[in-house]
């Protein structure tokens, strides 16, 4: 795969390395998995421009936290939540660039991508990717987007390439190989999603403005 091209293997390796034995989600591999997913979004063309631009901005905020002077608190999602909560709820709600708020936005997109990839994996050769994508979107991100964005997104999905073209974008060989690797990668993404969901629910962070 060319530099900057999407590779499903890279996403698989990153998400596989995300979760420790203590079920902590490490931010370094999480963010590197995200760069892979962003390349996936970008490979789909302008259709996902608005989502990929936003994801890039969010990943960059998280990288600044990781590299900042409080970086040691941003080792894992768990340490980040603990650290940001210790600064008081006002601080958390008042800061648009808090780690918790930023990860929550990425977390919502991750659910959509996870559902979409799963739909591609289980679909048939002639399954309509626009339908798979719309269903995944309606079950995840749509409820966080205003009507105008939802309308634009659903229209854009109509222009998506065929399922085979998608599987080719994965850069892992023929379609059946891509399907196998999706089967391997998706459980790791689901695991990271599930742990994050649980952590955020436990601390009532799922509806941070």
UniProtKB/TrEMBL annotation:
One Pfam assignment: GLTP
Keywords: Cell membrane, Cytoplasm, Endosome, Golgi apparatus, Lipid transport, Lipid-binding, Membrane, Nucleus, Transport
Topological type in the membrane: Peripheral membrane protein
Compartmental location: Cell membrane; Cytoplasm, Cytosol; Endosome membrane; Golgi apparatus, trans-Golgi network membrane
Principal subcellular localisation of the protein: membrane
One GO biological process term: negative regulation of interleukin-1 beta production
Substrates-to-products reaction catalysed: N-(9Z-octadecenoyl)-sphing-4-enine-1-phosphate(in) = N-(9Z-octadecenoyl)-sphing-4-enine-1-phosphate(out); N-(hexadecanoyl)-sphing-4-enine-1-phosphate(in) = N-(hexadecanoyl)-sphing-4-enine-1-phosphate(out)
Gene Ontology MF, one: ceramide 1-phosphate binding
Domain Glycolipid transfer protein intervals: 26-171
InterPro entries the record matches: GLTP_sf, Glycolipid_transfer_prot_dom
Protein name as annotated: Ceramide-1-phosphate transfer protein
């Amino acid at each position: 795969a060319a530099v900057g091209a999407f590779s499903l293997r890279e996403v698989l390796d990153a998400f596989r390395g995300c979760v420790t034995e203590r079920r902590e989600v490490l931010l370094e591999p999480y963010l590197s998995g995200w760069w892979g997913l962003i390349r996936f979004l970008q490979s789909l063309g302008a259709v996902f421009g608005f989502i990929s631009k936003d994801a890039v901005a969010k990943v960059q905020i998280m990288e600044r936290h990781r590299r900042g002077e409080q970086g040691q608190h941003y080792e894992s999602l768990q340490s980040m939540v603990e650290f940001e909560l210790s600064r008081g709820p006002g601080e958390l709600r008042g800061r648009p660039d808090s780690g918790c708020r930023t990860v929550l936005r990425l977390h919502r997109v991750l659910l959509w991508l996870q559902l979409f990839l799963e739909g591609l994996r289980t679909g048939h050769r002639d399954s309509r990717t626009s339908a798979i994508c719309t269903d995944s979107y309606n079950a995840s991100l749509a409820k966080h987007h205003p009507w105008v964005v939802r309308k634009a997104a659903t229209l854009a999905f109509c222009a998506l390439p065929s399922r085979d073209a998608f599987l080719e974008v994965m850069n892992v060989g023929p379609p059946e190989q891509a399907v196998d690797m999706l089967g391997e990668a998706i459980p790791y993404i689901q695991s990271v999603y599930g742990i994050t969901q649980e952590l955020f629910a436990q601390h009532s962070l799922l509806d941070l403005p």
